Amino acid sequence: MITLYRKKSHSTERGIALVVALLVLLLITAVGMGMILMSNTETNISANFRDQQTAYFAAKGGIEEVRDRLRAGATNTLNLTTTLGNTLAGAPSGILYVINPLGGETVAPWLLAGTNYPDNELVNELNCTGTAPTGTWWVTTVPTASTAYQTSPILPWKWVRVMEKINKSDTGCTRITSVDGTTSGNRVCWTGANEVTTALASCAAAGNTYMPVYELTALAVTSSGSRRMMQYEVTRSSLPPIPGAIVFDGPTPDFGTNPHSAAFGVTGNDTATGPNGGVGCSPPTNEPGLGGFNAAAATSLTTQTNRPGSYNGSPAGIADVSSQLGPLGTVDGLNNLVNTVTGLAGGNVYGASPLPNPSGVNLGTDAAPVINVVQGDFSFGGSGSGILLVTGTLTMSGTPNFNGLILVIGKGNVVKNGGGNGTLDGSLLVANLYSDTPPTYTHLIPSGPPGIPTIAWNGGGNATIQYDSCWINSLSQSLPYKIVTQRELSY
Predict the structure, then answer these.
(1) Rounded to whole angstroms, how far apart are CA atoms 151 and 147?
(2) Residue 279: Cβ-neighbour burial (10 angstroms; 0-12, 13-18, 19+)
(3) pTM of this prediction?
(4) 31: which of 13, 56, 194, 449 lies 20 to 30 Å off by Cα?
(5) Do residues 295 and 426 share a domain?
(6) Number of folded domains in the chain?
C-alpha cells in the first residue's frame, strides 16, 4: 500500500522578515535620534558654559584693566586722587564709571531705570531702597576702555564701577559690606594687615600707613545674553617706611671708612620735593641722617664717623630707628621686600651672570622712573630715578646722581670711590642677609635679625645724601593696586 504525504504550506509566514527589518530600523532610528538629541543637548550645554565663562573672564578682564590704570604712570591712567578725592560713595562725584561700549551701543549704568546696562547692584550696596542716590553722585566725565588693553576679539565687559568702600550704610541691605558689624557708613581703610573703619575725613588722617579701600565692580554681557558680575576690593600698594637718609639695617654696622670732607653731607631733614618740585607732596616728615638698627648700632655709627657734624636730621643726625623699621628689622621682612620689588620690576631684573655689572640697565629719569633689580654686583656713576635694588655689592664712582630709593639687600655692601659730587635724593637702605663677617658672604641667615651692613665711602667731595619722602611716596603711587578680596555677585 502506497501512502502519500502532503507538504505543509508556509504561506502564513510570508512578510515576517520585512516586519522584523522595519522594527530593527525603527529601533536604530530611535537610538540615532536619541544620540543626536543628547549630542545637541551636550553641545548647547557646552556652548552655554563657554558663554558663561566668557562673561566671567570678561568681567575679570575689565576689572584688571581698571586696576592697572589706577596706578600713576599707567597708559590712560585713572588718578583717583584727583578724580574721586576723599569723597564717600553716594556723595557728589563719589563714583567713577569706566565704560566699554561695543558696536556703537550705549552704555549708561548710572541710569538705574534705563535699559542700557543699568547698575542696579549699586542700590543694594548703598541705600537699599531700589533708587539712585540723590544729587550728582557719579563723575560725569566718563572714561572708556583703553585700546592699549584690548584683546582680539574685544572682551564684552560693559562697565566697571570704582568707589570707595563704605561700612554698610543701612540695615536691610542685601549686600553686607560691614567690616566691624556696625552700620556706620564710614569709610574703610587698609592698615597693611586688615580692614578698619574711620569716621575721619580720609584714611591718611586716621594713620600714616592707612590706605583707602576701593570697590571695583564689573558687569559683562555676551552677545548671547550671558551676564556675570565680579567685584574686587583693592588698595594701593606702598613701600615700607625708610626711616632715614641712610639706614644701616643690621647690628654692628661698619662705617669705618667715611668722608673727612666738610663738603660731604647727609641730612634726614625732609626736602619733600619729589618729581614735581614739591607739588602734591605731603607735609615733610624729618628723619635721622644715619639710622641705626638699634641703640648700640647708633652709638657705633656715632663713634665711627669722622665728622659727626656732617649728619643732620630729627630727632638727631645719627639715631636709633629700631621702632620704625617694623618688618624691615627681620630677614623675613627684607626678603619679602626683595620679592615685592623684584615682582614689580618686570623685565628689568638682571641675573647674577655675567658679573659684574650687567650692561644695558636703564636707570630711569625724573619724568619716567624705573624699577631695576640687579641680582649681583653693580657699578654706576651716572644718573637715575626710581628704585634700584642690588643684591650684591653696589659700587658708585665719579658723580652718581639718583632720585628715589636705593636698596642694597643681600650682601649689604656699598662702596663709593673717589670724591666727586652727586646727590642721592630719597633714601639708601643697606641690609646684609648673611651671617658671615664681611667680606665673606656664604651662609644665608634663615630668620631673625640681619647681619652686618657695610658702607665704605672713600673720599667725600661735595656729595650729598638727603631724605625725600615725596620721592618715596611718588614711587609708591606707581605701584599696582593690590587685591584685598574678590567675589562674584548675583545680578
Answers:
(1) 9
(2) exposed
(3) 0.71
(4) 13
(5) yes
(6) 2
